[in-house]
């Protein structure tokens, strides 16, 4: 292995695979390595055997769950927002030719002890139990205000300055009740907590517009999902990288990140051989131990995510027998600081056997009893056939990589969509190349 690469990428999580695909497409010579024998790293989709090996070593999966190959269970539950940035990257890179997408049937919110659908049409909005009649009128005015907003036309601003006025001010202007604010901020703008309320309204405006345009794109819900599980996403970007000359090595131990006397990256040692490169990109788990990693990553402030993968033999009650859905439990509804998310998919997405549904409940850990924190979500699922609980620290890099050519990505957070992953891709891309990532806009085909 005497040849030198432009970039070595460590870990085959979605963030790393997107970067390796984009860099290969740009003509960079990329070597991609992973210690696992499967793609996806933290964001992999596992078959039954792999799932049991990970959570219950030594235990065989029960035969009643069906065939191993019928399963692709996501470790990290996320849906793709139809008009979001990940969709743009998928289309821009043309990896859509390796993937098929299906709509998620519905988006729901938990409020006042019951599950209600987030309205996807004018008709549903009129019938929705989420608001009383007068509140519906106020909300309608609020949404019309957002839809009609034009930066260059002050007549559409109604005296509001999105860059200065807080979201709280905007809510109060339209007289929206706390429950409605909750629903808008958490089920539509998809904030994890209430910190956004005191910040300028621009970011929330952008998020709500993204949500409503995604909803309008395919109807039913703003989310789409790849057939055969999220693990298909990193694999598709790996194929893209390979087409442009990228080299992949799975099941390869990473024994040392080699640096020179100045601490600059030189290469990666695996067993007896060292591969050289100008830069390294990797997920935090490759930089979490050993002398060369000191001070390069830290756990974020609210530093852990608890996730429970639940095997169900029925759809989630009160979701209109949906074959797939997202349910958001806003933190105020259950006396927490952070929302609880439920993501459910089924055999129609080719991720489990017929008659089985896979629901994943997740949130940011706030106490020393993480499993109790997701109890409100587990309670909504009905009888749970089996569940696998994990608690994962959330890491973020402490260095930019400019000084040592070591570029570290962030761990996956508790959000139920990929927008934060794409922010990370754009951030690392800029640090590695010195330029902004520019994407071309096109349409994506989705199964209804």
From TrEMBL:
Protein name as it appears in the record: Rab GDP dissociation inhibitor
Family stated for the protein in its record: Belongs to the Rab GDI family.
A GO-annotated cellular component: cytoplasm
Organism: Gymnopus androsaceus JB14
Domain of life of the organism encoding this protein: Eukaryota
InterPro entries given in the database record: FAD/NAD-bd_sf, GDP_dissociation_inhibitor, RabGDI
A GO MF term: Rab GDP-dissociation inhibitor activity
GO biological process: protein transport; small GTPase-mediated signal transduction; vesicle-mediated transport
């Amino acid at each position: 292995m005497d040849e030198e690469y432009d970039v070595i990428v460590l870990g085959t999580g979605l963030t790393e695979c997107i970067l390796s695909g984009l860099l290969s497409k740009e003509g960079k010579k990329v070597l991609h390595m992973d210690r696992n024998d499967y793609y996806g790293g933290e964001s992999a989709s596992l078959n039954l055997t792999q799932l049991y090996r990970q959570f219950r070593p030594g235990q065989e999966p029960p035969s009643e769950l069906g065939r191993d190959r019928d399963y692709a269970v996501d470790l990290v539950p996320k849906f793709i927002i139809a008009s979001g940035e990940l969709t743009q990257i998928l289309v821009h890179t043309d990896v859509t030719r390796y993937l098929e997408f299906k709509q998620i049937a519905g988006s729901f919110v938990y409020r006042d002890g019951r599950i209600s659908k987030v309205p996807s049409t004018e008709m549903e909005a009129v019938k929705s139990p989420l608001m009383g009649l007068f509140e519906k009128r106020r909300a309608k005015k609020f949404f019309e205000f957002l839809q009609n907003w034009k930066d260059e036309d002050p007549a559409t601003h109604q005296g509001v300055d999105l860059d200065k006025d807080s979201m709280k001010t905007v809510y109060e202007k339209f007289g929206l009740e706390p429950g409605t604010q909750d629903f808008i901020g958490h089920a539509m703008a998809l904030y994890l907590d209430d910190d956004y309320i005191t910040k300028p309204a621009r970011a929330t405006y952008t998020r709500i517009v993204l949500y409503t345009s995604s909803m309008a794109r395919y109807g039913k819900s703003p989310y789409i999902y790849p057939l055969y599980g999220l693990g298909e996403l990193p694999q598709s970007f790996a194929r893209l990288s390979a087409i442009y000359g990228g080299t992949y090595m799975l099941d390869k131990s990473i024994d040392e990140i080699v640096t020179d006397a100045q601490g600059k990256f030189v290469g990666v040692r695996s067993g007896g051989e060292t591969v050289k490169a100008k830069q390294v990109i990797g997920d935090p788990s490759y930089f979490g131990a050993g002398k060369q990693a000191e001070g390069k990553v830290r756990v974020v402030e609210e530093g852990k995510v608890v996730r429970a993968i639940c095997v169900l033999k029925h759809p989630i009650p009160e979701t209109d027998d949906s074959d797939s859905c997202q349910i958001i439990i806003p933190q105020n509804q259950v006396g927490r600081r952070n929302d609880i998310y439920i993501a459910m998919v089924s055999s129609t997405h080719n991720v489990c056997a017929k008659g089985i549904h896979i629901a994943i409940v997740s949130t940011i850990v706030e106490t020393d009893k993480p499993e109790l924190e997701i109890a409100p979500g587990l309670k909504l699922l009905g009888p749970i056939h089996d569940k696998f609980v994990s608690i994962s620290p959330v890491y973020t890099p402490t260095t930019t990589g400019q000084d040592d050519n070591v570029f570290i990505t962030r761990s996956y957070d508790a959000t139920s969509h990929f927008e934060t992953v794409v922010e990370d891709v754009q951030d690392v891309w800029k640090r590695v190349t010195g330029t902004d990532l520019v994407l071309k806009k096109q349409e994506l085909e989705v199964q209804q």
